[in-house]
């Protein structure tokens, strides 16, 4: 039962980070990058998503994000990096639309 409760808490952490990210929280961007790059806190290991979140954090001025983005990119193909960048642009477009 502890495993189910702990998995639920991890899922809630990712959900709360996603909600904060929608509000432009730079730390949430970075935390999501960490979660996706390590497959932790209820997020699957997904380097494309990790790169996307680290990229968003870096663009917003997070100090550690550019290095983490570069580390993740070292493990990715050019096509995966392009997809991550496309997803980051899409995120920015959608969140800008919500703010307007």
Quick overview of this protein structure:
With 100 residues, the chain is an all-alpha fold.
Question: Can you give a write-up of this model?
Answer:
- The protein is 78% helix and 0% strand.
- Helix 2 runs antiparallel to helix 3.
- The protein is globular.
- The protein has helices spanning 2-22, 26-38, 47-59, 65-73, 78-99.
- It is built from five helices and no strands.
- The longest helix has 22 residues, at 78-99.
- The N and C termini lie far apart (44 Å).
- It has 100 residues and is an all-alpha fold.
Helix content: over 70%
Number of strands: 0
**Intertermini distance:** 44 Å
Query: What structural category arises from helix and sheet content?
Result: mainly alpha
List keywords for this structure.
globular, 0% strand, single chain, mainly alpha
Spell out the blueprint of helices and strands:
Blueprint: H1 2-22, H2 26-38, H3 47-59, H4 65-73, H5 78-99
């Amino acid at each position: 039962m502890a495993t189910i409760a702990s998995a639920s808490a991890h899922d809630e952490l990712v959900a709360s980070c996603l909600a904060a990210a929608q509000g432009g929280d730079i730390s949430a961007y970075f935390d999501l990058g960490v979660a996706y790059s390590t497959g932790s806190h209820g997020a699957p290991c997904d380097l494309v998503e990790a790169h996307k979140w680290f990229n968003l954090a870096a663009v917003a001025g997070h100090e550690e994000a550019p290095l983490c983005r570069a580390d993740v990119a070292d493990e990715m193909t050019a096509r995966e990096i392009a997809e991550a960048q496309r997803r980051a642009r899409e995120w920015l477009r959608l969140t800008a639309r919500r703010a307007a």
